[in-house]
Amino acid sequence: MIKALSQTTAIARMLAIPAIRDPATYAFAFLFPVIFLFLYSLIGGMKLGQHVLFGSLISLVMNSGIISLPQTVVSYKFRKLQDMYVASPVHQLIYLFGLGLSRLLYSIPGVLLFLIILLASGYMPLSAIPVIMIVLLLSWAAGCAIGFTIATYFNNIMQVSAAANLLGLFMLLMPPVLYPLELIPEQWRWLALVIPSTSAAQLIKVACGASSLNSPAYVLVYWTILILYTLSGFVLVLKKSRWREV
Question: Measured between alpha carbons, how far is 102 from 22 in angstroms, rounded to an integer?
Answer without folding.
Answer: 14
